[in-house]
# Entry
Amino acid sequence: MNSNWFKLLMKATKVRYGKNLLLKGMPVIFNKSGAELIIGDNVTINSSFLSNLVGLYQRTIIVTRTPESRIHIGSNVGISGATIYARKSITIGENTLVGGNAKILDNDFHPLEIEARNADIKEKIGAKPITIGKNCFIGCNALILKGTILGDGCIVGAGAVVSGVFEDNCVIAGNPARVIKRF
# Structure
């Protein structure tokens, strides 16, 4: 399936996207009925092995999982083999780059309590919105967890596990991630 056919499929599932959306390879983009998935102008989504030489393990996956969830991806954003999965809300500011194999997850995927997890009670899955500012760079294999807020101009180091609120213009690295530099 070429990208033009895939764009028709995206429109059919009410994914809204701006001008010059470039799909390299075939991403997995799923918009739950009632949810909102908006992709800005001049966005590039890399989903093929050779589209990013950092080495992609998978195609890009962008999913709104519940009818009340929303994903907003700003203009001039680049995404490579990443997973962006929302039960509540994920916002990615303009001019942001999401590195190879990064994961941006606003939820726990499963309830934390044993009884709720064993009974697969979806309402007990913890979720908090994620906001990533403008002009950020998320390094390869980074993990951005629920409730995270990254200010404008943040850089997230490769492999960082990020949770919390971070000010503008800082470098965040490690597990757990912390500010290692301000500029």
The mean pLDDT is 93. The first strand starts at residue 15 and ends at 17. Residues 61 and 83 are 5 Å apart (CA to CA).
